Every structure is written in C-alpha cells, then in structure tokens.
Amino acid sequence: MDFQLKTLDPAGAAREKCDALVLVVPEGYKPGKDPLSRLAADALKAGDLEAKPGKMLQAYKPAGVAASRVIMVGAGDGSARRVQAAVCAAVGSLRSSPTVKRLVVVLPQDGGDDLVRAAVTGTAEAAYVYVATKSKPEGREIARVTIAVADAKGMQAAFETAKAAATGIEFAREL
After folding, report:
1. Whether pTM exceeds 0.85
2. Residues 7/55, Cβ–Cβ less than 8 Å
3. Which of 13, 23, 77, 123 is the most exposed place for a label (fewest CB within 10 A)?
4. What's the average model confidence in pLDDT over 113-118?
C-alpha cells in the first residue's frame, strides 16, 4: 500500500480526487464553511452522527465533494487510540469494496504526530489481507492512502516512522 502525507484542510480534501474519503470527527468538532465540514456539522446537529468512538455515517456522492463516498467517523476525545480505532473501523467498512482504490483520511487539524501514526497503523491494520500461503490470494483493494493533515512538513518524521512500523507489522504477520 502506498501512503502519502499531504497538507490539506477539509476544503482541500473535499476537492481531492479519490474513491473514498474518511473524515475523523472528534468531540468538540469545529466545522468550517467548506462542503465536507458542513456535511459533518449537519449530521452532528441532526443526531445522525455522534463523535463517540466508532460511530460512522456514510454518504454517497455528496454535493461539493469530489470523492464518491464519504465516511464520517467519530473519534471520541481525539486521542491517538481513539483515532486509530476510528480509522480502523472506517477502512474496515471499505475493505471489501472493489471500487475503492484511492483513499483520503482527513485528520483533525489540531492533531499531532501521534494522530498521524495512529492513522497510518490503523489503515494498514484494517486493509491487511493475508496472502502468504493461499492458493488463490486476493490482494487488498486499497492501493493508495493519503493522510491529510494541517502541516505535512512538521509531521514527516512521524509519518515515515509509522510507514516503517506498518510495513514491519505486515511482514511479521506474513511469517
């Protein structure tokens, strides 16, 4: 799986060309004026989405968003553990979909290095497919994942460490 780290706010992520977009929504979510933030704010206000860990809401081809699918997922207090569980749940719901090849994960804009690590490891964990000893292996469908953060340059070291850890974990699973 090819991971990328990009500086994107929710408005930029809404314009990003991808098959699915995961928006991590922590408690106290402060929406902007872009279509993605408005979608999440409306869902929270209506009670269709809760910021509790693991609560998800999916939207198909929402207005103003380039992705054909949007998954808004609650992350509770926004800690790394909760973000990893949220990303894992969202990616797990997409795992068997053959139409999802490119994925964008939008992290809270006030998040730090620990959220980047959580998003990468959560995505890798949920998308993992064992193929080592299978006679007809079915590889993973998701090929490219973009992690959207407020400051990609400042989080590059944590991102590289997380990618290496995810690769090592997958290697160990194959053994």
Report:
1. yes
2. no
3. 77
4. 92
